[in-house]
Write the C-alpha coordinates for this entry.
Amino acid sequence: MTNYLLAGGGTAGHVNPLLAFADVIMADDPGHQVFALGTKEGLEANLVPDRGYPLLIVDRLPMPRKINGYLFRFPTLFRKSVNRVEDYIKHHKIDVVVGFGGYASAPAYRAARKVGIPYVVHEANALAGYANRVGARHASAVAVSFTNTKLPNATLTGIPIRKQIVELDRQARRKEAAEFFKLDENGKTLLVVGGSLGSRRINQTIEQSRTALAAAGIQVLHIAGSRSELDPVDEKGYLRINYCERMDLALAMANFAVARAGAATVAEFAAVGMPAVYVPYPVGNGEQKYNVDDMVRANAGLVVNDSDFTQEYVLSRLIPLISNSKLSSEMAENARALGRRDGAEALLKLVNGVLRV
Protein backbone atom coordinates (compact mmCIF):
# COMPACT_ATOMS: atom_id res chain seq x y z
CA MET A 1 0.00 0.00 0.00
CA THR A 2 1.25 3.47 -0.94
CA ASN A 3 0.11 6.84 0.37
CA TYR A 4 0.08 9.54 -2.32
CA LEU A 5 -0.22 13.30 -1.91
CA LEU A 6 -1.39 15.00 -5.11
CA ALA A 7 -0.83 18.76 -5.11
CA GLY A 8 -2.51 21.21 -7.47
CA GLY A 9 -5.76 22.87 -8.36
CA GLY A 10 -7.22 26.24 -9.16
CA THR A 11 -8.94 25.67 -12.48
CA ALA A 12 -10.57 22.59 -13.99
CA GLY A 13 -7.50 22.27 -16.22
CA HIS A 14 -5.45 21.40 -13.15
CA VAL A 15 -8.06 19.64 -11.04
CA ASN A 16 -9.35 17.21 -13.68
CA PRO A 17 -5.90 15.69 -14.46
CA LEU A 18 -5.25 15.38 -10.72
CA LEU A 19 -8.53 13.53 -10.24
CA ALA A 20 -7.99 11.35 -13.29
CA PHE A 21 -4.62 10.34 -11.88
CA ALA A 22 -6.15 9.68 -8.47
CA ASP A 23 -8.72 7.37 -10.05
CA VAL A 24 -6.02 5.37 -11.84
CA ILE A 25 -4.05 5.02 -8.60
CA MET A 26 -7.07 3.55 -6.86
CA ALA A 27 -7.89 1.31 -9.82
CA ASP A 28 -4.33 -0.02 -9.62
CA ASP A 29 -4.79 -1.05 -5.99
CA PRO A 30 -7.78 -0.11 -3.78
CA GLY A 31 -5.44 -0.43 -0.81
CA HIS A 32 -3.63 2.77 -1.79
CA GLN A 33 -4.51 6.05 -0.10
CA VAL A 34 -4.78 9.28 -2.05
CA PHE A 35 -4.84 12.74 -0.48
CA ALA A 36 -5.19 15.96 -2.47
CA LEU A 37 -3.57 19.24 -1.51
CA GLY A 38 -5.18 22.47 -2.65
CA THR A 39 -6.66 25.80 -1.63
CA LYS A 40 -10.13 26.61 -0.39
CA GLU A 41 -10.59 29.13 -3.22
CA GLY A 42 -9.94 26.81 -6.18
CA LEU A 43 -12.35 24.44 -7.92
CA GLU A 44 -10.70 21.60 -6.02
CA ALA A 45 -12.57 22.75 -2.90
CA ASN A 46 -15.71 21.20 -4.39
CA LEU A 47 -14.54 18.80 -7.07
CA VAL A 48 -12.11 16.80 -4.91
CA PRO A 49 -14.48 16.00 -2.02
CA ASP A 50 -17.28 15.29 -4.51
CA ARG A 51 -15.07 12.58 -6.04
CA GLY A 52 -14.51 11.08 -2.59
CA TYR A 53 -10.91 12.13 -1.92
CA PRO A 54 -9.83 14.02 1.22
CA LEU A 55 -8.65 17.57 0.53
CA LEU A 56 -5.88 19.06 2.65
CA ILE A 57 -5.83 22.85 2.61
CA VAL A 58 -2.97 25.31 2.17
CA ASP A 59 -3.15 29.06 1.78
CA ARG A 60 -3.31 30.58 -1.67
CA LEU A 61 0.00 32.42 -2.00
CA PRO A 62 0.59 34.08 -5.39
CA MET A 63 4.18 34.95 -6.22
CA PRO A 64 4.84 38.63 -5.43
CA ARG A 65 4.77 40.75 -8.59
CA LYS A 66 5.63 44.16 -7.16
CA ILE A 67 7.44 45.80 -4.28
CA ASN A 68 4.91 46.17 -1.47
CA GLY A 69 4.15 44.84 1.99
CA TYR A 70 3.14 41.43 0.65
CA LEU A 71 6.57 40.98 -0.93
CA PHE A 72 8.21 41.21 2.50
CA ARG A 73 5.59 39.01 4.20
CA PHE A 74 5.74 36.32 1.52
CA PRO A 75 8.82 34.39 2.81
CA THR A 76 7.24 33.96 6.24
CA LEU A 77 3.87 32.99 4.78
CA PHE A 78 5.51 30.49 2.44
CA ARG A 79 7.48 28.88 5.29
CA LYS A 80 4.24 28.47 7.23
CA SER A 81 2.67 26.71 4.23
CA VAL A 82 5.70 24.44 3.88
CA ASN A 83 5.51 23.57 7.57
CA ARG A 84 1.81 22.80 7.26
CA VAL A 85 2.41 20.45 4.32
CA GLU A 86 5.28 18.85 6.23
CA ASP A 87 2.84 18.12 9.06
CA TYR A 88 0.36 16.64 6.56
CA ILE A 89 3.07 14.39 5.12
CA LYS A 90 4.11 13.09 8.53
CA HIS A 91 0.58 12.68 9.88
CA HIS A 92 -0.69 10.77 6.83
CA LYS A 93 2.59 8.88 6.32
CA ILE A 94 2.87 10.07 2.71
CA ASP A 95 5.26 8.04 0.55
CA VAL A 96 5.41 10.31 -2.51
CA VAL A 97 4.22 13.74 -3.62
CA VAL A 98 2.99 14.34 -7.16
CA GLY A 99 2.53 18.00 -8.09
CA PHE A 100 0.49 19.39 -10.96
CA GLY A 101 1.61 22.99 -10.59
CA GLY A 102 -0.15 25.97 -9.05
CA TYR A 103 -0.27 27.43 -5.56
CA ALA A 104 -0.35 24.11 -3.70
CA SER A 105 2.58 22.52 -5.51
CA ALA A 106 5.41 24.86 -4.50
CA PRO A 107 5.10 24.26 -0.73
CA ALA A 108 4.49 20.55 -1.39
CA TYR A 109 7.77 20.19 -3.28
CA ARG A 110 9.70 22.02 -0.57
CA ALA A 111 8.08 19.98 2.21
CA ALA A 112 8.83 16.69 0.44
CA ARG A 113 12.50 17.66 0.21
CA LYS A 114 12.60 18.57 3.90
CA VAL A 115 11.02 15.29 4.95
CA GLY A 116 13.17 13.29 2.54
CA ILE A 117 10.50 11.63 0.41
CA PRO A 118 10.47 11.63 -3.42
CA TYR A 119 8.35 14.03 -5.40
CA VAL A 120 7.36 14.04 -9.05
CA VAL A 121 6.49 17.11 -11.12
CA HIS A 122 3.79 16.87 -13.77
CA GLU A 123 3.63 19.84 -16.14
CA ALA A 124 0.43 20.01 -18.18
CA ASN A 125 1.26 23.07 -20.29
CA ALA A 126 3.82 23.42 -23.02
CA LEU A 127 5.22 26.47 -21.23
CA ALA A 128 5.94 25.41 -17.66
CA GLY A 129 4.69 27.48 -14.75
CA TYR A 130 6.97 28.97 -12.12
CA ALA A 131 6.28 26.39 -9.39
CA ASN A 132 7.11 23.51 -11.70
CA ARG A 133 10.17 25.18 -13.20
CA VAL A 134 11.63 25.58 -9.72
CA GLY A 135 10.39 22.21 -8.49
CA ALA A 136 11.84 20.34 -11.45
CA ARG A 137 15.38 21.20 -10.37
CA HIS A 138 15.32 18.70 -7.51
CA ALA A 139 12.46 16.40 -8.53
CA SER A 140 12.87 12.64 -8.51
CA ALA A 141 11.15 12.62 -11.92
CA VAL A 142 9.52 15.12 -14.26
CA ALA A 143 6.57 14.37 -16.54
CA VAL A 144 5.46 16.59 -19.43
CA SER A 145 2.47 16.58 -21.73
CA PHE A 146 3.78 18.19 -24.89
CA THR A 147 6.88 17.67 -26.99
CA ASN A 148 7.84 21.36 -26.81
CA THR A 149 7.89 21.62 -22.98
CA LYS A 150 11.35 22.64 -21.80
CA LEU A 151 12.07 21.04 -18.43
CA PRO A 152 15.24 19.13 -17.53
CA ASN A 153 15.25 15.32 -17.65
CA ALA A 154 11.56 15.18 -18.56
CA THR A 155 9.57 12.13 -19.62
CA LEU A 156 6.71 12.56 -22.10
CA THR A 157 3.65 11.00 -20.46
CA GLY A 158 0.79 13.07 -21.78
CA ILE A 159 -1.99 14.35 -19.54
CA PRO A 160 -4.14 12.19 -17.29
CA ILE A 161 -7.64 12.48 -18.71
CA ARG A 162 -10.99 11.45 -17.31
CA LYS A 163 -12.10 7.83 -17.61
CA GLN A 164 -15.33 8.89 -19.31
CA ILE A 165 -13.22 10.49 -22.06
CA VAL A 166 -10.67 7.66 -22.23
CA GLU A 167 -13.42 5.13 -22.88
CA LEU A 168 -15.51 7.33 -25.18
CA ASP A 169 -16.74 5.96 -28.51
CA ARG A 170 -18.17 9.13 -30.04
CA GLN A 171 -20.13 7.48 -32.81
CA ALA A 172 -21.68 4.85 -30.54
CA ARG A 173 -22.74 7.47 -27.97
CA ARG A 174 -24.11 10.13 -30.34
CA LYS A 175 -27.75 9.02 -30.09
CA GLU A 176 -27.54 9.07 -26.30
CA ALA A 177 -25.88 12.50 -26.45
CA ALA A 178 -28.60 13.91 -28.72
CA GLU A 179 -31.29 12.72 -26.34
CA PHE A 180 -29.41 14.11 -23.33
CA PHE A 181 -28.95 17.60 -24.82
CA LYS A 182 -32.22 17.52 -26.84
CA LEU A 183 -30.40 18.22 -30.10
CA ASP A 184 -30.77 16.69 -33.57
CA GLU A 185 -28.74 13.50 -33.77
CA ASN A 186 -28.12 14.01 -37.49
CA GLY A 187 -27.38 17.75 -37.44
CA LYS A 188 -23.92 19.29 -37.64
CA THR A 189 -23.05 20.37 -34.12
CA LEU A 190 -20.58 22.97 -32.94
CA LEU A 191 -19.34 22.54 -29.39
CA VAL A 192 -18.30 25.84 -27.80
CA VAL A 193 -16.32 25.71 -24.56
CA GLY A 194 -15.83 29.05 -22.85
CA GLY A 195 -13.45 27.64 -20.25
CA SER A 196 -14.22 26.67 -16.65
CA LEU A 197 -14.59 30.34 -15.65
CA GLY A 198 -16.02 31.63 -18.92
CA SER A 199 -14.34 33.34 -21.87
CA ARG A 200 -15.95 36.70 -22.55
CA ARG A 201 -14.57 36.87 -26.10
CA ILE A 202 -15.69 33.38 -27.16
CA ASN A 203 -19.07 33.67 -25.47
CA GLN A 204 -19.93 37.08 -26.88
CA THR A 205 -18.79 36.21 -30.41
CA ILE A 206 -20.88 33.03 -30.49
CA GLU A 207 -23.87 34.90 -29.07
CA GLN A 208 -23.55 37.48 -31.84
CA SER A 209 -23.24 34.72 -34.45
CA ARG A 210 -26.24 32.61 -33.48
CA THR A 211 -28.36 33.68 -36.45
CA ALA A 212 -25.58 33.02 -38.97
CA LEU A 213 -24.81 29.60 -37.49
CA ALA A 214 -28.47 28.61 -37.57
CA ALA A 215 -28.79 29.80 -41.17
CA ALA A 216 -25.86 27.56 -42.10
CA GLY A 217 -27.63 24.57 -40.56
CA ILE A 218 -25.23 24.33 -37.61
CA GLN A 219 -26.66 23.62 -34.16
CA VAL A 220 -24.69 24.78 -31.13
CA LEU A 221 -23.91 23.25 -27.76
CA HIS A 222 -22.47 26.19 -25.84
CA ILE A 223 -20.81 25.62 -22.46
CA ALA A 224 -20.31 29.21 -21.37
CA GLY A 225 -18.48 28.72 -18.05
CA SER A 226 -19.41 29.11 -14.41
CA ARG A 227 -18.80 32.88 -14.36
CA SER A 228 -20.31 33.72 -17.71
CA GLU A 229 -22.42 36.85 -17.89
CA LEU A 230 -24.76 35.18 -20.38
CA ASP A 231 -27.94 33.49 -19.23
CA PRO A 232 -28.64 29.84 -20.05
CA VAL A 233 -30.64 29.26 -23.23
CA ASP A 234 -32.56 26.18 -24.38
CA GLU A 235 -33.93 26.67 -27.87
CA LYS A 236 -34.27 24.49 -30.93
CA GLY A 237 -30.76 24.04 -32.32
CA TYR A 238 -29.07 26.10 -29.60
CA LEU A 239 -28.32 25.07 -26.02
CA ARG A 240 -26.27 27.26 -23.68
CA ILE A 241 -25.36 26.04 -20.22
CA ASN A 242 -22.88 27.30 -17.62
CA TYR A 243 -21.35 23.95 -16.71
CA CYS A 244 -21.42 20.49 -18.24
CA GLU A 245 -21.06 17.43 -16.06
CA ARG A 246 -21.18 15.13 -19.08
CA MET A 247 -18.32 16.26 -21.28
CA ASP A 248 -18.17 12.75 -22.71
CA LEU A 249 -21.63 13.24 -24.20
CA ALA A 250 -20.79 16.79 -25.31
CA LEU A 251 -17.82 15.43 -27.26
CA ALA A 252 -19.96 12.61 -28.65
CA MET A 253 -22.50 15.15 -29.89
CA ALA A 254 -20.04 17.52 -31.56
CA ASN A 255 -18.62 17.53 -35.07
CA PHE A 256 -16.37 20.52 -34.43
CA ALA A 257 -15.35 22.67 -31.47
CA VAL A 258 -14.28 26.16 -30.48
CA ALA A 259 -12.41 26.45 -27.18
CA ARG A 260 -9.61 27.98 -25.20
CA ALA A 261 -6.33 26.08 -25.51
CA GLY A 262 -5.94 24.81 -21.97
CA ALA A 263 -3.73 21.75 -21.79
CA ALA A 264 -6.48 19.39 -20.63
CA THR A 265 -8.84 20.61 -23.34
CA VAL A 266 -6.24 20.09 -26.06
CA ALA A 267 -5.41 16.63 -24.70
CA GLU A 268 -9.05 15.53 -24.51
CA PHE A 269 -9.85 16.84 -27.98
CA ALA A 270 -6.86 15.00 -29.42
CA ALA A 271 -7.72 11.79 -27.59
CA VAL A 272 -11.19 11.62 -29.13
CA GLY A 273 -10.28 13.12 -32.50
CA MET A 274 -12.10 16.44 -32.19
CA PRO A 275 -11.23 19.05 -34.86
CA ALA A 276 -11.22 22.51 -33.34
CA VAL A 277 -10.48 26.20 -33.57
CA TYR A 278 -8.49 27.21 -30.50
CA VAL A 279 -8.61 30.74 -29.08
CA PRO A 280 -5.71 30.92 -26.58
CA TYR A 281 -6.25 32.90 -23.41
CA PRO A 282 -4.40 36.20 -24.03
CA VAL A 283 -3.58 37.03 -20.39
CA GLY A 284 -0.95 35.49 -18.11
CA ASN A 285 2.27 33.93 -19.36
CA GLY A 286 0.76 32.98 -22.72
CA GLU A 287 1.20 29.23 -22.30
CA GLN A 288 -2.00 28.35 -24.13
CA LYS A 289 -0.74 29.37 -27.56
CA TYR A 290 2.13 26.88 -27.19
CA ASN A 291 -0.20 24.05 -26.16
CA VAL A 292 -1.58 23.82 -29.69
CA ASP A 293 1.73 23.83 -31.59
CA ASP A 294 1.61 20.09 -32.34
CA MET A 295 -2.06 20.22 -33.30
CA VAL A 296 -1.55 23.11 -35.70
CA ARG A 297 1.51 21.50 -37.32
CA ALA A 298 -0.43 18.28 -37.85
CA ASN A 299 -3.43 20.12 -39.33
CA ALA A 300 -5.56 18.85 -36.46
CA GLY A 301 -6.64 22.30 -35.32
CA LEU A 302 -6.45 26.00 -36.07
CA VAL A 303 -5.46 28.80 -33.73
CA VAL A 304 -6.86 32.35 -33.79
CA ASN A 305 -5.90 35.26 -31.58
CA ASP A 306 -8.46 36.29 -28.99
CA SER A 307 -8.87 39.72 -30.59
CA ASP A 308 -9.42 38.15 -34.02
CA PHE A 309 -12.18 35.77 -32.95
CA THR A 310 -15.03 37.96 -34.12
CA GLN A 311 -18.38 37.59 -35.82
CA GLU A 312 -16.58 38.15 -39.12
CA TYR A 313 -14.24 35.24 -38.38
CA VAL A 314 -17.20 32.99 -37.67
CA LEU A 315 -18.79 33.97 -40.98
CA SER A 316 -15.70 33.84 -43.18
CA ARG A 317 -13.68 31.00 -41.62
CA LEU A 318 -15.51 28.94 -39.00
CA ILE A 319 -18.80 28.25 -40.79
CA PRO A 320 -17.12 27.21 -44.09
CA LEU A 321 -14.75 24.96 -42.15
CA ILE A 322 -17.55 23.20 -40.25
CA SER A 323 -19.54 22.86 -43.47
CA ASN A 324 -16.63 21.17 -45.26
CA SER A 325 -17.14 17.59 -44.10
CA LYS A 326 -14.07 16.27 -45.92
CA LEU A 327 -11.70 18.79 -44.33
CA SER A 328 -13.25 18.38 -40.88
CA SER A 329 -12.87 14.61 -41.12
CA GLU A 330 -9.21 14.96 -42.10
CA MET A 331 -8.59 17.23 -39.11
CA ALA A 332 -10.35 14.72 -36.85
CA GLU A 333 -8.12 11.88 -38.03
CA ASN A 334 -5.01 14.00 -37.58
CA ALA A 335 -6.07 14.90 -34.04
CA ARG A 336 -6.75 11.28 -33.17
CA ALA A 337 -3.31 10.28 -34.46
CA LEU A 338 -1.69 12.78 -32.07
CA GLY A 339 -3.85 12.00 -29.07
CA ARG A 340 -3.15 9.55 -26.31
CA ARG A 341 -5.49 8.08 -23.73
CA ASP A 342 -2.91 6.53 -21.41
CA GLY A 343 -1.54 9.66 -19.76
CA ALA A 344 -2.62 8.63 -16.26
CA GLU A 345 -1.15 5.14 -16.60
CA ALA A 346 2.11 6.52 -18.01
CA LEU A 347 2.41 8.94 -15.10
CA LEU A 348 1.68 6.21 -12.56
CA LYS A 349 4.41 4.05 -14.10
CA LEU A 350 6.86 6.95 -13.74
CA VAL A 351 5.83 7.60 -10.12
CA ASN A 352 6.03 3.94 -9.18
CA GLY A 353 9.49 3.80 -10.72
CA VAL A 354 10.58 6.54 -8.33
CA LEU A 355 9.14 4.63 -5.38
CA ARG A 356 11.11 1.51 -6.29
CA VAL A 357 14.44 3.35 -6.39
Notes: The longest helix spans residues 69-91. The chain has two domains: 3-161+341-356, 164-338. Residues 56 and 88 are 8 Å apart (CA to CA).
